[in-house]
Amino acid sequence: MNPDKRHSSQVDTNASSTSAENSSYDRMINRLCRNGLQALDVGGSGDCFFRAISHQYYGTSEFHIAVRQAGVSFLEQHAELFVESISEDSSKSYLKRMATPGTWCDNIIIQAVANQLNCVIHIIESRLSCPEGTTITPPPANKNQRVLFVVFIEDLHYVSTEPHTINKNALTYLKLKLSESHEQHQKRLQNRRDNRQRKRKQQQNPENIVKKACNNQPEGNCTITQKQYLLNFDAEKNGDIHKQSWAKENITKFHNSNNYAIYQSKICFEAWPLRVAPKCLQNYKCSRCSREKESPKKFSKEDLMIPSPVPSELSGLTQIEELLIAKALLIMHIYIKPGGQRGYSGHTINLPQDVSELAHLLPRYPKDLSIILVKVKGKGNFVKNLSVRRQVVSDAIH
Fold first, then answer.
1. Which of 51, 69, 145, 214 is the most buried (most CB within 10 A)?
2. Domains held by the chain: number
3. Integer angstrom CA distances of residue 322 from 10, 145, 313, 392, 393
């Protein structure tokens, strides 16, 4: 059997056009992101596969020669497993050539490396015909198998991978999926089928089931629907419904579900109710701040999103006094809903308001003026007098 050319790093100078390369690159990036990974080039010169495996296994690409030698050693010790695959070439010449740095890999040495290092090698390919990639697995009898992820770009180059900064859950699930045995795989599928069947039954029977003691069978239980139980319930015979054991249990569960504590995020300073205390109270971050990877974070003090403390002069102003000294006049359409809740619609307009004239007028007669009358003109020359506390407004402006 001839070596599979799918994993041979042979360069074809007329492989594809520029547009095809771009689509292949985009396809590779999308497949990596879907699996929670991103590409990392660790070098080439014929050793790209071994450098990628070295980076995945040891954390550095410098041990690529050791990875190559590991595959060659496995072939020397288990030549009977690959004798048919290298029938066109003598085993000695093949091993000598494959042990030479700079020699491109093929499917035989890839399988040998996976067996010797006891690791699952998942190759994410950029070709359109391989959407799921290729998985090289060692013998199933081996335990504690590691999962390595490399990328094969259009039959030209192998690169290593590293976890993506956003989609890490997909990588965890993929590692679990690739490293599980056949029994574990079947058990996971069975659990998934059981969960789907359980949800389907719940959708078909939406009514809650209540268990209560039968009248004639004090030690047994009979199952009826909640509606039937409430219709047939006799308070004189069984006592108040809220004193029943199942009712007390449900009430306790309800109260326990409302047990939470308020914790304030150290970044956005927003308080959130949590049922479980965070691991680090001193550096607690809400889920939104934890998801953000940008710096500075959007709702942080560094991004000027935390309001400064309100001065004491501004804390006691009435609504009319706030409007009088505001530097911007806000115009918006506000309405009251039937339930009393306020809402607004349309555009919001901010008009600049000059308060310098007011700042010079207010201190003119400080001993005589305790209340200022502000006239507001409306449609049809309608005038309304509004009273303002002179000293409060003066303190707020100055």
1. 51
2. 4
3. 75, 68, 11, 10, 8
What residue numbers bound the domain in which 120 lies?
A: 5-184
- Per the domain annotation, does 193 fall within a domain? no
What is the pLDDT, as a whole number, of residue 315? 83
Asked if the structure places residue 200 within a domain, the reply is: no
Report pLDDT for 167. 57
Pair 44, 102 in one domain: yes
Residue 55's pLDDT band (cuts 50, 70, 90): very high
Predicted confidence at residue 178, as pLDDT, reads: 66
Which CATH number covers residue 118?
3.90.70.80
pLDDT band at 84 (very low <50, low <70, confident <90, very high): low
